Amino acid sequence: MRYGWIALFLLSGLVAFSQNSARVKQLENQRKKALEEIEMTSQLLNETKISTRSSLNRLNLLSKQILSRKKVISILNQEIGGIDSQINGMRREIGRLEGELKTKQKNYGKSVRGMYKRRSSQDKLLFILSADNFAQSIRRMRYLKEYADWQKRQAIEISEKQKEIELKRSTLEKTRSEKQALLGVRETENKKLENEESTQKTEVQQLNKKQRDLQAQLKKKKQQAEALNQQIEKQIALEIAKAEEEARLAREKAERERAEKARIAREERKRKAEASGKKYVEEKEEPAPEPIREERVADVKGGYAMTREEKKLSDNFANNKGRLPYPVTGRHTIVGTFGEQQHQDLKYVRTNNSGIDIQTSPGADARAVFNGEVTRVFVVPGYNNSVIIRHGNYLTVYSNLSQVYVKAGDRVSTRQSIGKIFTDSEDGNATILHFQLWKEKTKLNPAPWLD
Predict the structure, then answer these.
(1) Tens-digit pLDDT profile for residues 249-263
(2) Dmax over Cα atoms in the chain, in whole Å?
(3) Fold topology of 316-449
(4) How much is the pTM?
């Protein structure tokens, strides 16, 4: 029982060590991903030339980069903590192994010394022959054989234990080196963070000097955003009304077909009665009408009435939440988040975004995030061309396109390019797609839907 508890303890220690190693590996992957985000943001910053209009956009990029840098440092701290736990665990394991080795060496030494004293085969023979009976002689022979086998096993185990200790020590040294390397990386990242925060402070000071101009720009942008939303809401209302009208016409058509079918049935009964010489009597109650099968049905009252095909598309879209591709080609980063936001550095800047703003490189295309149908292409000042794609009762909106590759009525597939994103030469060559997601008449945050 005692040995069982010892084995269980050792096994639990091994499991904890393995879990800790897996956690460190997971943190390493997270760090790599965060560094990729920083590299992507850095490239976009380099491509965004400094100008009066681009200052706020550059500051947003810089703020995002600083957040990513802080995330990297936080992950590094967790990695170092995990490695410290690994080192402590390995030290304990080495101590335990060395204790076991000493015990085995001590026991083995005693047995060797004992055998040296009884080294002659004559002593062994006398030990066997001095038994009281034959059965006892057999037991003594078995004992000598088992004792010899035990000694051999002890010698092998001592050798293996020594090798295991050396391997553990080698792993410990390697882990220590990894820790030192991570400490160096952390120091480098901290220096980069200090430089970025210094740059951010300078740009904030410059923007504060341009507060009046910036507020005027934001006011104009707000008016343009309201105009864009009005166009989207108008289009949604038109499509809902059109779908409801189609549903009404389908019901009326079905009712006419049912009435015509009933009339033909009455005439047929009358003809048969006349042919048989019987007096035809009109039935007081007509047979129960067949249920009217509506071609279009809305999920909610006042919502978009969908066909069966559109309903299936809508369900598929919903089931892909969190897995939709980003609506841009090439490297990208979100520079404007959904909803009402108070700028963290500029207290006089408060924005309300109906979607998200994704910055990418000049020349990038906007692409459909899912299969659907283009329902409208329109122009709004400040957002250039916009495209609305319907996915059942979901809609995606792609704004700020300089060129459009599709037209209303086109069927598009996932990742299909629908237009070229506008690059604003007066805004530091910023290439930003404004992307919105709606369900019926409700705006949704697109970020959690994207992969």
Answers:
(1) 877 887 888 888 878
(2) 134
(3) Glucose Permease (Domain IIA) (2.70.70)
(4) 0.62
